[in-house]
Amino acid sequence: MVPPDWCAIAAGFDVDLGEHVPGPVGPLVGSASLVLTMTAAHARDLVVAHPTLVGRLAVLGDVAERLERIPPGAGTIAEVVAPRRAIELLNGVSPNEVADPYRRRKDEQLAIAANLAARCARIVERWPG
Question: Which of 21, 40, 59, 107 is most buried by its number of CB atoms within 10 A?
Fold first, then answer.
């Protein structure tokens, strides 16, 4: 269960986390066309557990940054995600990470939520297709 204070912060960004239950990724990840993580460590852990995700897995901040370099709606999902080869994912490093809000102070959680919302908005407005 997500802590109530984090739910309140997320609600300020029109996100309802009331039913969200954090936990390990299940078998549905294998059929996902795209998986975005907040941190490079999360991406590394996923590619180790699910090697077939290479080419469909990326750090959310990296995708937002790549989309800034192309016109809105241009390109393809493969062009946005494919630059992340297995070795890059296994290195577990990204300058564009969104920090995990878990066990952070409220002011940190608010900053993380604002960062996450801004990056998600950028992705949605510039998404290929």
Answer: 59
- List, for residues 2-13, the tens digit of each pLDDT value: 888 888 999 999
pTM, whole model, 2 decimals?
0.84
Q: How many domains does the chain have?
A: 1
d(CA 62, CA 37): 10
Q: Does the residue 58 lie in any domain? A: yes
Residue 63 domain flag: yes
C-alpha span between 117 and 62 (Å, rounded): 14
pLDDT in tens, 17-74: 888 888 888 888 888 888 999 999 999 999 899 988 888 889 999 999 988 888 888 8
Q: Is residue 65 part of a domain?
A: yes
Q: What is the DSSP letter of 40?
A: H
- Domain hosting 59: range is 4-17+32-126
Closest C-alpha among 9, 27, 26 to residue 17: 9
Q: Which two tokens stand for residue 58?
A: 């990326």
Does residue 25 form part of some domain?
no
Phi, psi of 106 (to 5 degrees): -60, -40
